[in-house]
Amino acid sequence: MKKLHVNVSVNNNDLEFLCNPEDTLLDVLRNDLNLTGTKEGCSTGDCGACSVILDKKLVCSCLVLAAEVDGSDIDTIEGMAEENKLHVLQEKFLEHAALQCGICTPGILIAAKSLLEKNQNPTEKEVRYWLAGNLCRCTGYDKIIRAVLDAAREMRKDYGPNYS
Amino acid sequence: MDQITPKTTKEFKIVGTRPLRPDGIDKVTGKAMYGADLYAPNMLYGCLLRINEPHAFIESIDTSNAEQLSGVKSIVTFKDFIKINPDNKNNQILENCIANEKVLYDGHAVAAVAAVDLSTAKKALKLVKIKYKKLPFVITIEDAMKIGAPVVAIGKKNENIPDGYSDNVIQYCSFGHGNLEEGFKAAHKVIKRTFKTPSVHQGYIEPHACLASMSNDGKADLWCCTQGHFNVRSICSSIFKMDNSQLKVTASEIGGGFGGKTTVFIEPIALALSQKSGHPVKMVMSREDVFKATGPTVSSLVDVEVGMKKTGKITAARAIIRYEGGAFPNETYELGAQSAFAAYDLDAVKTEAFNVLTNRPTQAAYRAPGAPQSIYAVESVIDELCQFFNQDPLYVRILNAAKKGTKSSYGPTFDDIGLKATLEAAKNHPHYTSPLKENQGRGISCGFWFNFGGNTCVSLNINFDGTVGVVEGNPDIGGSRSSISQMAAEELGISLDKVKTVIADTNSLGHNDVTDGSRVTFSVGLATIKAAKAAKKELCKRASKLWGIDEDAVIWKDGYAHPAGANAGNQEPLSLEDIAKVSSQTGGPIAGHYEVNADGAGVSFGVHLVDIETDMETGHSKIIRYTVFQDAGKAIHPSYVEGQMQGGSVQGIGWALNEEYIYSSDGKLQNPGFLDYRIPVASDLPMIDPVILEIPNPGHPYGVRGVGETSIVPPLAAINNAVSRATGIRFTELPLSPPRVLKAILNKQ
User: Which of A142, A148, A149 to mutate to test the interface with B (most CBs of B within 10 A)?
Assistant: First the structure.
């Protein structure tokens, strides 16, 4: 079958790619755009390891067809740090030892970032429910939740009470 | 996050602190390379054809149509492996990767294809024609043990199996001491119950993945996610009749393992596809394949009988353990028997265990393999006895606890162990006396794991600029690079940022056993400290040369060589960097190394306290509070020790409340995905409070004990006891999922 031509902005870089109609966004990110920071854990939308932000919406990239994203903005883990400065969430994950093997970490960071963009002062319960779609088998989530809450605190401090 | 240290033996500067992990930035920015993240020029994609039957005889495999498909470069079946090496006929690991004469479980692979892309490879699989004859099958332990049951594999039965069992019962063992009859007679109450636990999967988020490349001269490179690349080399080089030196295995970063990545599933297949095609071949398992064809843990059927005096003293204890580990023999049943009563100092104890074959995927190690199932049964009966006598469950455990000098139920006599201190810490913790509300229950359980040492090899290189490279051979599965670097810096007396630890491939270092048995911080740490000591000896020698004094007139202290003794002189101390910078003038580069088959790992104990609230209308049980007490010997990086305690606890919580392999009556697995096989998610849980105790292990220079595995052991019984107390119903089967608990509640009403 003929390949489809797609234009997209990934981490603020304008890119184009050709894909098969059945290719997922995850396939293209990993196999064609060399962005292997987005991980594949299940391909059925159950584990969240492939989380990316698609036009400001948190999605599992394994559930999005690559051909659907023409004209979209996509944020992946590779775009989270600005130049050499880590995002507060990345810093806090390291500080709190919120990762062990690290395979779920890119997806959880992306999901947490998307939460903090919507809610600057989440409760523990809100963080737990927001991240319920991101499986982590190593940590028992304790240190992840602490890291996200601490990052939120830090970001409120950095940007002031009117930060939004 | 308390840390209780009953006694300290050594002052540390870097050990016991919480530095940022050295591989952290790569892992939070997406740079770290895991199993599926490597691509090679001219690479093919490999995939496996699996048969969805629990038991079948393979009559023929016709690959001719698939071979004709454009883009298909190689096809492999078991016959190819016999051509490579006739000894493969009896290779169980290989026969689990790809079926020989029979399909032994739902999802057993029978053929593999490599093609230019994944969709072509998948198309080719559909063109492979398999003729097979369905055979009768067995799924449960009870069915498999009965005389007349369909036999999974003929000729595996050991001679010591008692009469009255089918040929699926292949191995038997027993441990214990003392007079059981007298012991039970002396009891005021004897309780005997039968317990069941389901198969559960390790559930690592990264599916197995590898990239293999074999050249025409028989040399090969293999990249894979594994807990032990030296073991992968041993297994694969024996399958291919290769010299060890000709197969270089590089461990990728690993996305979880928990024991499940201690063997191979796709690596020999990828090598064979590469050999046949002349291309590099990449293989990545799907999640469904991970559930169906990689190792879950054993399922269990355990009888436990315990006699107790009304004072709480245990007079006798006995267990009969039956573990089913799929279609091939396993060692887990023996570990279950050995660990069952390890926490208790008993005069009369006996455990017997049976190893049973079924038509299920072959079990693989899962964190403290075999211990959670048997200890679940034991700790549940002890709790019921405590309730019967209205005795405090922690008091009873302290009264009967194993200690230094106890002859364990499995033979050895214990050295310094931290069980009693751990129980005392739980008793004195505010959690233990906090009030409970209606429909809430508090559960307690002890846990135990042996801990392993094993073959270990470390090189420590002093660079000319005074920095240090530690070369070790165990994949970093949860922060071990950090703890190894900390121990090296501590021993050398230099700052942590001068040390970098790397994990070598199989051609760059001697053999290292698998990252298992909670052995890495203990064994690799031990070898790193000894390698640093060797380097320090050489540093002192070089200083003596620079000073023109005797070698034994130099000592190493706080990162500096000092002259010592009356005639040594008053030279200014030399730092590691000072000596390293001029080392080419004093004899060349400086390095230390150490090789050992490490002993003295030191057993590990833990105690868990959990509060549960059970919804009497739905049967759903929610964890309200969870506290973990564990003896770490010495916590090198306390955050990662806590992480092991928390992570293991939550895996145990999943096992206790949700997780199970569900089979239909046709022998097929019904829930091979994360939607239907539900592991705990963030919203299911509260914070997990870890309390680290440090009772130094005499077998390690810094007192380290393995901490990785013990934490999965207690949750099963702790939760069972909590739900039983919350509902007033004694449960004897896991998981305590809402339907099971609700059914029991309704039956009681």
Answer: A142
